[in-house]
Design brief:
The complex is a heterodimer of chains A (279) and B (509). The termini of chain A are far apart. With 279 residues, chain A is mainly β. Chain A has a six-stranded parallel barrel with strand order 7-8-10-12-11-9. Helix content of chain A is 5%, strand content 62%. Chain B is α/β, with parallel strands linked by helices and 509 residues long. In chain B, the strands form four sheets. A five-stranded mixed β-sheet of chain B has the order 1-8-11-14-17, with no helix packed on it. Chain B has a five-stranded antiparallel β-sheet with strand order 2-3-4-5-6, with helices on one face. Chain B has a five-stranded parallel β-sheet with strand order 7-10-13-16-19. In chain B, helix 8 packs across helix 9, helix 8 packs antiparallel against helix 11 and helix 8 runs parallel beside helix 12. The radius of gyration of chain B is 43 Å and the shape is elongated. Classes of the chains: A mainly beta (279), B alpha/beta (509). The interface between A and B is medium-sized, with 27 and 28 residues.
C-alpha cells in the first residue's frame, strides 16, 4: 500500500462488503403434533426477537408452530417430554457476524381442552397473544422490550390461581382479563404504557397487584363491576373517574353491593394512572 | 319405497363421497390418527418433510443442496428450481396448512410431474411410493365397510383411489362439511321420494335429479343435479347444491339452501388474494431484510448533503448577522468565550424561564387592562424574540469557536489562522456541525458503525444544545450584544491571539 491511510480505506471497503458473503439463511419450519394421551401440559415458550403470535389450536392438535428464523443463529425448539412441552428457539452456536433478529417470526397454536400451565418468555418482540380457548391453570408471561397485546377472547374454563406478567420497557395491553378466570393477577412493569382491560366474563373476586416504574397505566372496567383501587404512588397522577375516596382506597359507588368485584393495588413511581369505564 | 333407475355400478363420485364419508367418521378410519406429528421446513436451500407416524414409524424426505434423501439415505439428486423441486415445494406449500387426514390425502394424491427427465423419473417414483406407503399404512389394515345405501369399499387400495379422486374435486370437502354422515343414502341417478316415505338419513345424489314428495329428516346434497320440492314435501335439514338448483313447487324446507360451488369459488378467490398478499409481503420483507451496501452509501450521502445544507443555511444567516450587526455578534461571542460558565447558567435558566415569562407577561397585560392591546404584539413577538436570541447566541458561539480555532496552532488548520469574522463564522459552524457530517459519513460503512454513528449524533446534539444554552446566556448577559460589561473593551480574547491576528481583529472591529 502506498500509505497507511490508503490501507485503512481499503480495509474499510473490504469490511463494508463482508455481509454480502455473510447473508442470513432464513428458514421456515412448520411443526404440528397431534393430541395423543396428554391430559395436562406444562408449556414453556422461549422466543428472543421478532414477531410472536399465539392462539388456541383447533381440536385434536397439541401444538402447531410456524417459525421463520435465521438458521445460522438459532434453531427451532419443540420438545415434548411427558407433560413438559418446550417451544420456541434456542441458539445454534453457529452465530457469526452481524445479525438482525427482528425479521423472525413465530406463530404458535396451543392445545385446547386440556389443562395447561403456560410460561412465556418473550424478548424484544412484538407479541399478539390470544389466550382464549386455552384451559389455563397457571400463567407466567415475561416480556422484555416489546409491544405486547394479550387478549382473552373466550373464558378460561378452569380456575387459574395466579396470572403473572412481568414486562420491561414496553407498550403492554391486556384485554378481557376477567375471562382469565384468575384469582390473582400480578403485573410488574418497568417503563412504558400499560393498559389493563377487565372486560370478559365477570369473576366473583379478582385481586390485581400492579407495580410500575415509570409510565402510564390505564385501567378499564366494565360498568357493573365493583372496583376498589388502593394506590401507593410517588409522583403519579391519578384520574379516579367514577370512584369515591375512602381512606387509602378508591371505591366504585356499588362496591359493597356488587356481586363481582375487582381489587387493584397499584404501586407506581412516576407517571399517570387513568381509570376508564366501558359499557 | 324409493324409485330409482338401477345401474350395475355406482357413479364414481358417489363412491368417492362414500369414501370421504368414511374418512370423516373417526372410528372407521384409523388414518385420523396416523400422523402423530409433522415438520415441514422450507428455505432457499432446503425443502424437507418429516413425519412421525403411529407405531413409532418415521418418514423423512429432504431436498437440500441438490441432494434428495429419504429417511436419511441418499435417494438421488435434483437441481434447484427444476420440475421435481418445484413440485415438491408446491406439495409442502399445500401440506403446511393441512392436518392429519387432509395431510395424508395430499401426500397420497401427489404425483410426479409429467415432464421430468428420465434421470429424475425413478427418483420421483421412489418419492411417490414412500409418501403413499406412509400415508396409507394405517388404512391398509381397515376392515371392509358397508355404509347405508349399498356402497361397499374394500381394502386400502380402494381408499387410495378415492383419495386421489378427492384431490381432483376441490369443494367436495366443503360440501360434506358438517353433514350428518353416519346415516347416508347415496344415489347416482334420478330418484323420487314418494309422499308416504320418511327418510331419516342424509341424502346425497350425484348426476341425477331428486324429486321429493315425502319427508327427509336430514340434509340433502345434490351434485350435478337438481332438487325438486313438490307440494306436501318436507326437508328438515339443509339443501346443499353443487352445480345444481332447488326447484320449489310447494313443500317445506326447514333448513337453508347453500350453493357450495359459489362458496368454493369465493374461498378459492379469497385464498388466492391472501396468497398474493402474503407473497407481496414476503417479497417486501425479503427486500427489506436483504443487506445492500448501496443502500447505506445512498443514505449516508443523503445525510451528508442534508448536514451540509444545514451548514449553508446557518452560514448564510451568520454572514448576514456579521454584515449587519458584527459589533453585537462579537460582543456576544466574547461574552460567551470569557464567561462561559456564567453564560451557560444564565442560558439554562433563561430557557426554563422562557415559557413562564411568556405566560406571566400575558397575565400582567391582561390584568392591567390597558395593556390588553399590547397582547397583539407580545404574543407573536415574544416567541420570535426568544428564537432570535437563541439563533444569535448560537451564531455568537460559532463565531467564538472560529476565533478560538484561529488563535491556536492546530495542525492542518493553519489556513484558518489569518481570518476575519466571516471565516470565524464558517469555521465555528463547521466545528459545531462536524459531528453530524461525520455521523453520516461513517454510516456509509454499513450497519456495524451504528453505535459510532449514534455517538457522533449524540455529540452533535450535545454541541448544538450547549451552543444554544451558552449563546442565549451570552445574549442575556450582554443585553443582546450591546454591553461589554462581562468582557471589557480590550478583552483577553484579543490579547491571547498572536499579534498579527490581533491586528486583523482590530481592523475588523
Amino acid at each position: 500500500m502506498r500509505s497507511p491511510r490508503t490501507a485503512a480505506i481499503v480495509a474499510s471497503l473490504l469490511l463494508a462488503c463482508a455481509p454480502v458473503s455473510n447473508a442470513q439463511s432464513w428458514r421456515t419450519v412448520t411443526k404440528v403434533r397431534h393430541l395423543a394421551a396428554e391430559d395436562q401440559l406444562d408449556v414453556n415458550v422461549r422466543y428472543g426477537a421478532g414477531v410472536f403470535r399465539l392462539r388456541a389450536a383447533e381440536a385434536g392438535v397439541l401444538y402447531r408452530m410456524r417459525l421463520r428464523y435465521d438458521e445460522d443463529v438459532v434453531e427451532p425448539l419443540a420438545e415434548l417430554n411427558g407433560n413438559d412441552l418446550e417451544l420456541g428457539i434456542r441458539g445454534s452456536g453457529r452465530m457469526r457476524g452481524w445479525h438482525k433478529e427482528g425479521a423472525g417470526e413465530l406463530e404458535l397454536e396451543l392445545v385446547r381442552g386440556i389443562p395447561v400451565d403456560l410460561n412465556l418468555e418473550i424478548g424484544a418482540t412484538r407479541s399478539i397473544i390470544d389466550l382464549g380457548g386455552l384451559s389455563l391453570t397457571a400463567l407466567d408471561v415475561s416480556a422484555g422490550a416489546s409491544e405486547s397485546t394479550i387478549s382473552v377472547s373466550e373464558p378460561n374454563p378452569v380456575r387459574l390461581s395466579d396470572a403473572r406478567f412481568q414486562v420491561g420497557a414496553v407498550s403492554f395491553r391486556a384485554e378481557g382479563l376477567q375471562n382469565l378466570n384468575a384469582e390473582r393477577i400480578e403485573l410488574k412493569a418497568g417503563v412504558g404504557e400499560v393498559t389493563l382491560d377487565f372486560s370478559g366474563q365477570p369473576q366473583e373476586e379478582t385481586t390485581v397487584d400492579v407495580e410500575m416504574g415509570l409510565g402510564s397505566l390505564t385501567l378499564r372496567f366494565p360498568r357493573g363491576v365493583g372496583v376498589r383501587i388502593i394506590k401507593n404512588t410517588f409522583l403519579a397522577s391519578f384520574d379516579s373517574e367514577g370512584l369515591l375516596k375512602q381512606g387509602d382506597a378508591y371505591l366504585s359507588p356499588d362496591w359493597e353491593s356488587a356481586p363481582r368485584r375487582v381489587t387493584v393495588q397499584v404501586k407506581a413511581a412516576l407517571g399517570s394512572i387513568d381509570v376508564q369505564w366501558v359499557p | 319405497m324409493l324409485r330409482t333407475s338401477s345401474r350395475s355400478s355406482l357413479h364414481p363420485l358417489c363412491a368417492l363421497i362414500a369414501g370421504l364419508a368414511l374418512l370423516g367418521t373417526p372410528p372407521l378410519f384409523a388414518q385420523e390418527h396416523g400422523v402423530v406429528s409433522s415438520e415441514i421446513a422450507v428455505s432457499s436451500r432446503e425443502a424437507a418433510l418429516d413425519l412421525e407416524l403411529q407405531g413409532g414409524r418415521r418418514l423423512e424426505i429432504t431436498f437440500r443442496d441438490g441432494q434428495v434423501r429419504i429417511d436419511g439415505e441418499p435417494a438421488g439428486t435434483y437441481t434447484a428450481g427444476d420440475a421435481l423441486d418445484r413440485s415438491w415445494r408446491e406439495l409442502l406449500g399445500r401440506a403446511v396448512s393441512l392436518d392429519n387426514g387432509p395431510l395424508a390425502e395430499a401426500l397420497v394424491a401427489w404425483a410426479p410431474p409429467a415432464d421430468l427427465p428420465a434421470a429424475a423419473t425413478e427418483l420421483a417414483a421412489r418419492l411417490d411410493t414412500a409418501l403413499e406407503a406412509a400415508a396409507t399404512a394405517q388404512a391398509a389394515n381397515l376392515p371392509a365397510v358397508t355404509p347405508t345405501g349399498g356402497v361397499t369399499l374394500e381394502g386400502g387400495d380402494a381408499l387410495r383411489r378415492l383419495l386421489r379422486d378427492a384431490a381432483r374435486l376441490p369443494g367436495l370437502a366443503a360440501a360434506l362439511e358438517e353433514l350428518e354422515l353416519d346415516r347416508l343414502r347415496l344415489y347416482d341417478d334420478d330418484v323420487t321420494i314418494p309422499a308416504d316415505e320418511v327418510v331419516e338419513s342424509t341424502v346425497v345424489i350425484v348426476d341425477g335429479d331428486l324429486d321429493v314428495y315425502g319427508t327427509v329428516r336430514s340434509d340433502v346434497l345434490a351434485i350435478d343435479g337438481n332438487v325438486r320440492l313438490h307440494e306436501g314435501a318436507r326437508i328438515e335439514g339443509d339443501v346443499r347444491l353443487v352445480d345444481g338448483q332447488l326447484d320449489r313447487q310447494g313443500g317445506q324446507l326447514l333448513g337453508s339452501v347453500r350453493d357450495i360451488e359459489a362458496d368454493v369459488e369465493r374461498v378459492v378467490r379469497e385464498s388466492e388474494v391472501e396468497r398474493r398478499i402474503e407473497e407481496a409481503v414476503r417479497r417486501s420483507a425479503g427486500r427489506r431484510d436483504a443487506f445492500s451496501p448501496f443502500r447505506y452509501i445512498g443514505e449516508g450521502i443523503a445525510g451528508i448533503i442534508h448536514a451540509l445544507a444545514m451548514f449553508a443555511v446557518f452560514a448564510l444567516l451568520g454572514s448576514g448577522v456579521v454584515f449587519f450587526a458584527r459589533d453585537k455578534l462579537e460582543t456576544v461571542a466574547d461574552t460567551a468565550r470569557h464567561v462561559t460558565g456564567r453564560a451557560a447558567g444564565v442560558g439554562l435558566a433563561g430557557l426554563f424561564l422562557l415559557v413562564p415569562a411568556f405566560i406571566l407577561g400575558i397575565i400582567v397585560l391582561v390584568v392591567s387592562l390597558v395593556g390588553i392591546p399590547l397582547l397583539l404584539v407580545w404574543i407573536p413577538l415574544f416567541p420570535l424574540a426568544a428564537f432570535a436570541a437563541c439563533v444569535l447566541g448560537y451564531l455568537g458561539v460559532a463565531h467564538g469557536i472560529g476565533e478560538y480555532v484561529a488563535s491556536h496552532r492546530f495542525e492542518g488548520l493553519e489556513w484558518l489562522r489569518r481570518s476575519n469574522s466571516y471565516y470565524y463564522m464558517l469555521t465555528g459552524l463547521g466545528a459545531l456541525l462536524a459531528a453530524f457530517v461525520a455521523a453520516q459519513a461513517v454510516s456509509i460503512g454499513g450497519p456495524w458503525f451504528g453505535v459510532l454513528k449514534g455517538l457522533l449524533i449524540a455529540l452533535g446534539v450535545f454541541a448544538t444544545m450547549a451552543a444554544v444554552v451558552i449563546g442565549l446566556g451570552a445574549v442575556i448577559l450582554s443585553r443582546g450584544g450591546t454591553s461589554r460589561e462581562f468582557v471589557g473593551r480590550d478583552a483577553a480574547g484579543l490579547s491571547d491571539m498572536e499579534p498579527g491576528l490581533a491586528d486583523v481583529e482590530s481592523s475588523n472591529a
